[in-house]
Specification:
The chain folds into 2 domains: 88 residues, no CATH class; 55 residues, no CATH class. The longest helix is centred in the middle third of the chain and has 73 residues. It has 5 helices and 3 strands; from the N terminus they run H-E-E-E-H-H-H-H. It starts with a helix and ends with a helix. With 186 residues, the protein is α+β, with helices and mostly antiparallel strands. 8% of the residues are buried. Strand 1 and strand 2 form a beta hairpin. It is rod-shaped and about 115 Å long.
Length: 186
């Protein structure tokens, strides 16, 4: 005798383990319990899917088994595959979120450290300015190449300090200096 039972099961294209329990009852009837279990699905909700239960004689089970069984099992199989896919995507989203948070936290810490370094250098320069040490104050200023976002403020301070230790020839009246020098030489 040849049957096509397993070919019919293969056509259902189910993902997971198909567990079937056949229990005879009184009056030549059977109770058939069919459960699809997909261990690859990490979502514990898969355990909430109940088994399909059929009651009937051997003839009744033979006649309507695959028509009745096919759609619910395929739906359960697809649901568990989708649940697993969802869980993987959710996990990936968590990783990405953690990575992005870590990245933004790192950038924030770096920015805070950089601003702290800038403020410390600027404060040191101002202390030297108060002591009248303009050359040292100019040297203590933060470098524009390291802090381009503060370039304008740094340049203003540099110019201010330069006026004290290196007066510009162009801001003063050069003729006054020449005549004074000439008067003292003769």
């Amino acid at each position: 005798m040849q049957t096509n039972f397993f070919r019919q099961l293969a056509k259902l294209n189910l993902t997971g383990d198909l567990q079937m329990t056949l229990r005879p009852t009184e009056e030549n009837s059977f109770v058939l319990s069919v459960l699809l279990n997909n261990e690859q699905c990490g979502d514990e909700a898969r355990k909430l899917i109940p088994p399909l239960n059929f009651r009937g004689t051997a003839e009744e089970l033979d006649n309507g088994f695959f028509e009745t069984l096919g759609t619910p099992l395929q739906t359960a199989s697809e649901l568990m595959v989708d649940m697993e896919s969802f869980m993987k995507q959710l996990e990936e989203a968590k990783k990405q979120s953690a990575m992005e948070k870590e990245k933004s936290d790192k950038e924030k810490k770096e920015k805070e450290a950089k601003e702290k370094k800038y403020k410390e250098a600027f404060q040191k320069a101002e202390e030297l300015e108060k002591a009248g040490k303009y050359k040292e104050a100019w040297s203590a200023l933060p470098k524009i190449s390291e802090f381009p976002e503060f370039a304008e403020t740094i340049r203003k301070k540099q110019d201010e300090y330069e006026r004290h230790f290196a007066p510009s020839l162009f801001t003063e009246n050069p003729t006054d200096n020449v005549t004074n020098d000439q008067d003292t030489k003769y």
